[in-house]
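sorry for the late reply, my laptop died twice this morning and i had to redo everyting from scratch. anyway the thing you sent over, i finally got around to it. pasting the sequence first so we're on the same page, its 171 residues, then the predicted structure underneath. double check i copied it right bc i was rushing
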Amino acid sequence: MNEPTTASNNNGAGHASGNGIDIDAEIAAMEERLRKLKRLHRLKDRVEFMESIAAAMDEALVKILELTCEEFKVSETEVFGRSREEQFTWPRHVTVWLLRCCSAASLSSMGQMMGGRDHGTMIHSIHAVKNRMETEPRFAALVRKLEQKTRACLSNLPQAGKMPAPHYRHD
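ok and here's the structure:
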């Protein structure tokens, strides 16, 4: 009589169906495929989350640029430009400062948003603003005013997923 192979009559080698398929191996393969699908689903969720953060960061940058350009009477092109003229560097530095203080952007992502600059350039901008604020009260008042306006504008934006809290620091 042709009985299917079972764990009890083949010393744990797995169950075979009547057509010779190892059922245990098939189940194990299906479980592995299910684990892979679950990992892909989690990855998809992470990608969507990161895209929502990127969109929120883009909106934050737009609002910060609007405020900075209006206050310093320069264009976005001039802020993103490579000019080292003071009339353009300070608005650029302040834009970086506001991104750092009022958003959850990392130094690297801020550099990318600012036209492909590196994180070291972002650190330089932050220190330049901090140092000038310590020595020039009028400049400090201007930056604080822009910080308040920025926070007010950003609080009205739709939030991205579970976005990390803004830095709100002045180091």
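The chain is about 65% helix and 0% strand.
thats about all i looked at so far, will dig more tmrw
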